Automatic annotation (TrEMBL):
The name this protein goes by in its record: C2H2-type domain-containing protein
Domain of life according to the entry: Eukaryota
UniProt xrefs under PROSITE patterns: ZINC_FINGER_C2H2_1, ZINC_FINGER_C2H2_2
The entry's keywords: Metal-binding, Zinc, Zinc-finger
Keyword Metal-binding: yes
Taxonomic classification: Eukaryota, Fungi, Dikarya, Basidiomycota, Agaricomycotina
InterPro entries per UniProt: Znf_C2H2_type
Gene Ontology MF annotations: zinc ion binding
Length: 95
């Protein structure tokens, strides 16, 4: 098994002096290099049932996990979410 040396030789990065702001905007479709993500762009569902804390990209995936690992169909209680639509069960309780 080979090990990396304690000191590795680094190389200086080269500065891009030929690409213009217009070329970047044309390639990205924006006026800059990137943009800030919003909850609508990146929904996250965290299963908090029995201190599970697994993360899922959709409520459907969370529910499949709950059926398989927790033996329940409930996809709305004990869920921490940053989803745009929120939790309908919590919204009903607030009304």
């Amino acid at each position: 098994m080979s090990m990396l040396p304690e000191n590795t030789r680094g190389e200086l990065g080269l500065k891009d002096v030929t690409t213009t702001k217009e070329e970047i905007a044309a390639a990205t479709g924006t006026n800059g290099v990137g943009r800030k993500a919003t909850p609508q762009d990146t929904p996250i569902f965290v299963c908090e049932l029995n201190a599970c804390y697994r993360l899922f990209p959709s409520r459907a995936r969370l529910q499949a996990h709950r059926v398989r690992d927790h033996n329940t169909q409930d996809a709305y209680s004990s869920v921490l979410t940053y989803e745009a639509d929120g939790n309908p069960a919590q919204e009903q309780m607030q009304e």
